[in-house]
Write a structure and sequence with these properties.
Elements lengths: L2 H15 L3 E4 L18 H9 L3 H20 L7 E10 L2 E12 L2 E10 L7 H19 L2 E6 L7 H15 L3 E3 H6 L16 H17 L6
Parallel strand pairs: 1-5, 5-6
Antiparallel strand pairs: 2-3, 3-4
Helix pairs in contact: 1-3, 1-4, 2-4, 4-5
Amino acid sequence: MSTSQVRERLPAQLARYEPDLVILWAGVNNYWNLAGAEREDGFGSRLGAFALRSRLYRLVRVAIHDASLESAAAETRADGRHQQSEIEKCRGDDCEFQARHRVRHDGVVDVVINRQAEGWDLAGLRQRTETDVAAMHRLLAAAGIGFAAVRYALDFHPFDAANAGIEDAARALGIPVADGAVALQRVPEASVEWLHGLHPNAALYHEIARELVPIAEAFDPEPP
């Protein structure tokens, strides 16, 4: 997902899981996935953050969200935990590529539609990441929920731009950040393996989790 897609799903996920702390690790997909980039953080989303404190509102929000997802999932006509289909839409010489992912998790079906136009978003990657992270921070702060982020272990393009966007928002808003690059230094070279799409392997995920431990321990939620 792009950070915009994560941001769009966040209110419903908060209503479902009622977390004390949210940890975000996203940003690099903004390089190629333009889905949700046009979304603005309006008054309605800020009002919804306060409404999340209501158990009745959370119940209704989850019910509407699930019904919408099931309807979208039915259109994919796919079985199994994860199914992907791809289409290309063109208007004259202007083409847009879409990938539709249908994913089941925790008994919920989610449909993620990624949108890639010709030419990847080089210039907007850093700004879009910062904007979405800041918007998620505002939502979580209004709902009384803690927030932390993870910085990617790699620092070449496009990871460096995503990291910069995360750091820009973190500095401005005081968001704690777990540094993947620091975690990577603790992994023996022979144990480092990059999976498809340069995702970390289990050894690096383990060390990044260790970076998150003090952040989680320092967070002290207010009693209900």
